[in-house]
Structure formats: C-alpha cells, structure tokens
Design brief:
The chain is mostly helical. The protein is built from 4 helices and 2 strands; from the N terminus they run H-H-E-E-H-H.
Length: about 110
C-alpha cells in the first residue's frame, strides 16, 4: 500500500528539523542515537535516509524538563546552602550584587 509508506527524509532535511549540522547528525547516527536507512548499493559509501517517525522518536527521547538550580524544598548537596553561607546573603541576587560591588571596589 503506497499510501502507508512514509517519505524518507534526507540528512539535510533532518539536520534542519533538529537545528543541528549534518556532521552532528552523522555522529548521532553512528552512535545509534537516531536510526537511519542506508540506501546505497552494497559496498558503496553509505547514503542515509531517515523516517519521520524515527526523527520524532529521537526528539521525544531527548526532551528534558529543567529544574530549579537551587530548589527550596530540600538542601543543596554537600552541605552547601545560600542561607547561612559566610557571606550572609540569602538570595542569588544579593550574592551577585556583593560580587559586583567587590569587583568594582578593587578596580579603584
């Protein structure tokens, strides 16, 4: 059934879809992170094509959700905490402000 067959995508099309270079796409293919179909003749240099569903699977496997850098519900690892630190600052903004002030004071 020809209507059920997905159109295969070229490396250039996939690289564009994923916003990366073709070289990086070749590396991902070689390491097995994204599946490809070799359409070249036996013994010839590989020529890859990609199924759209494989590209979508790759994207869904690589999707991440970033968390807060300093979660408030639990202490940071290795005993480090912004509260009670030797600077006495209680927020990242205060620490930045103190560092900037310290740097500008040293340049005078």
């Amino acid at each position: 059934m020809p209507g059920d067959i997905e159109k295969l995508l070229t490396p250039a099309e996939v690289a564009d879809m994923l916003s990366l270079s073709e070289r990086h796409l070749r590396s991902l293919t070689a390491e097995g992170s994204i599946a490809a179909i070799n359409i070249s003749l036996l013994g010839a240099r590989p020529r890859y094509r990609y199924e759209p569903s494989e590209v979508e699977d790759f994207k869904s496997r690589r999707k991440v959700v970033l968390q807060e850098v300093f979660p408030t519900s639990r202490p940071a690892s290795r005993g480090f905490s912004l509260r009670g630190a030797s600077t006495g600052a209680s927020s990242l903004e205060e620490i930045r402000a103190r560092l900037v002030a310290k740097r500008t004071a040293g340049k005078k």
